Amino acid sequence: FVENLPEEQKFELVAINPSALLGPLITKSFCTSLEIVKKLLENSIPGSPRLQFSIVDVRDVARAHVLAITSDEAAGSRFLVNSDALWMRNIAQIISDEFSPQGYSVRTRGVRT
Length: 113
Hints:
Strand order of the largest sheet: 2-4-6
Structural class: alpha/beta
Largest sheet: 3 strands, mixed
Mean pLDDT: 91
Order of helices and strands: EEHEEHEEHE
Strand content: 15-25%
Number of strands: 7
Shape: elongated
Number of helices: 3
């Protein structure tokens, strides 16, 4: 895209590509990654299928953006941002531990896929 622009309109571009984003929200906007948490909290799935997700904390993605802005070497690059992989059942347990005191009942048992 940038390469095809007239010279006077070109700019430096850095792509930050995170895996599934988890972490605290600062706005009411909803991202696709939160669909995992939403479905677990609403019990809209019968349990935890044997799925594994690559995850990253939203604060780590914010740090990656700051580094991309402040680093001259980042221009023209793409960065995959990931920290770990968790099974859906592990994510369900973490959500259950955090939100059960608030009245949520999260299904943590596995289901056959």
